[in-house]
Design brief:
Strand content: 15-25%
Oligomer: single chain
CATH superfamily of one domain: Vaccinia Virus protein VP39
Number of strands: 11
Structural class: alpha/beta
CATH architecture of one domain: 3-Layer(aba) Sandwich
Shape: globular
Order of helices and strands: EEEHHEHEHEHEHEHEHEEHH
Helix content: 25-40%
Length: about 300
């Protein structure tokens, strides 16, 4: 392998030497062709997932600039009635759990068309969306969700914090996997979060991908594929402590993790809720033992 062919972990910087799955050259998943383009060759890009031997993060290289994928996005979350209902239930639960009121601010990163934040706004809670796709951000504004059209990272988090927009609840639903600059994103979460605030992240669970051979969930805009353990390592590196985890059926099987500032540790682990996290980590270890190939490339959690 030449030096130009080397790839390095986007979290810990270790050279990536182990293939998770190589799907060859593949077109972009959400780049739909116009009638005029049907007779032309469709652009394809390498889709090669590798696993880091140090932190066990599964990842694909950012062979396509994020601006090409996300700046004019084809996916509008509100098109899915089941996803809107999933989001409505979460909004209601989180309002009760974190005692959110008119003095609170809920911020969502990758807020899409306002599918989630509108439920908080309807309850009289201040909201702010951050969404890089201008077309879906405009749809959010039309339903009363103020939205910054920017990619989220540490720089933007500092800007928002300086103008007083620190979050009591900071949400990232199905965005953690979409981030090529992972450390910049996680650092931004820590900056954006109030001292006693909470982060909620939902992302597809790597264990389900392995168990159910969900190879079709690997595509260019999914830069990372998280186990609970690898997600926890990233967050802890940036001063965030996971205090709760939930298993979800969405997207083939997902995790919802809650985190707060490790130095403050303002949120207690709910009684009996340490068990789901332990069970998830245990099953991840068992899964690797049951999948010999995975076990050879990722020997331990």
């Amino acid at each position: 392998m030449s030096s130009t062919d080397k790839h390095f972990c986007r979290f810990c910087g270790t050279e990536l030497e182990h293939t998770f799955v190589d799907l060859g050259d593949t077109p972009l998943a959400n780049s739909f062709l116009s009638a005029q383009q049907l007779g032309q060759p469709e652009p394809s890009y390498p889709l090669h997932a590798r696993v880091c031997s140090e932190c066990l993060l599964v990842q694909v290289a950012a062979v396509v600039p994020p601006e090409e994928i996300f700046s004019d996005y084809a996916y509008f979350s509100s098109y899915s009635s089941t996803w809107v209902e999933h989001s409505r239930r979460f909004a209601q639960q989180s309002i009760r759990r974190f005692s959110l009121d008119r003095q609170s601010l809920v911020v969502e990163v990758a807020s899409n068309d306002g599918y989630l934040l509108r439920h908080y706004a309807e309850a009289g809670i201040s909201v702010l969306g951050v969404e890089p796709a201008a077309n879906v951000a405009e749809a959010a504004r039309e339903v009363g969700v103020p939205t910054e059209v920017r990619f989220f990272g540490e720089e933007l988090a500092h800007e928002l914090r300086q103008r007083g927009d620190a979050a009591d609840l900071l949400i990232g639903n199905n965005v953690f996997a979409h981030v090529p600059e992972l450390n910049d994103f996680a650092a931004g979460l820590a900056v954006m979060l109030k001292e006693e605030g909470a982060v909620s992240l939902e992302f597809p669970h790597l264990l389900r991908l392995i168990e159910q051979v969900q190879f079709d969930t690997i595509y260019h805009e999914h830069f990372c594929y998280f186990s609970l353990w690898s997600a926890q390592r990233v967050l802890e590196h940036h001063g965030l402590r996971v205090f709760d985890v939930e298993h979800l059926p969405t997207h083939g099987g997902s995790l919802r993790v809650f985190a707060d500032h490790a130095e403050v540790a303002s949120h207690r682990i709910p009684a009996g809720r340490g068990a789901p996290a332990r069970a998830a980590r245990s099953k991840e270890r068992s899964s690797r033992n049951a999948h010999g190939r995975w076990c050879r490339i990722a020997p331990a959690l």
